[in-house]
Amino acid sequence: MTRSLMSILILTLCLSHCALSTTDMINIGAGIYTEALMIGEVDIAYIAGLFDGEGSINIRRAMEKKKHKGKPGYRLSNSMRISMEITMTDKSVLIWVHEVLGVGTLRPKTVKGLRKDGTPYLPQYKWRCTFRDAYHVCCLLWPFAHTKLPKIQEVIEHYSTQSRENVVNLEEYRHVHKNT
Predict the structure, then answer these.
(1) Does 94 map to a domain?
(2) Statement: residue 177 has pLDDT above 70
(3) Residue 80 burial (CB < 10 Å; 0-12/13-18/19+)?
(4) pLDDT at 58 over 50
């Protein structure tokens, strides 16, 4: 499948999952940004490059024991854990990424030990987002990604194959829970 055909498919999937209308999505060349988030193409391209160099995507499939709702005991669930993160020593860049994307968490990363020359490691910081937030970020980064493109496509394909009946709109969920 060509990248331009894949671009149309990704845009269609993002529109259906992100609860945005076509007027909310503006296509500028290969780049896409949303008016709702006010993220410019240059910012998305920069974050994609930063993510290609410093980031990682973790996708883990496993059987997990989960409690039955309202019933005693446990059930087995075929679960998928999706997370993406950027770890680096420059905190100001990660603060900017966190503010621009509007999702995820920013925390200090525990660094243990010393370098071989005996000097301490610099403090590190980690921006991380999971599940549907990771999916939304993947939709934004996809047109600009290179080295992480296969993993980004895997995340997008995972959410595109799911049933949409039980999908919760994140914006509505956040709005309801922010006001309670």
Answers:
(1) yes
(2) yes
(3) middle
(4) yes
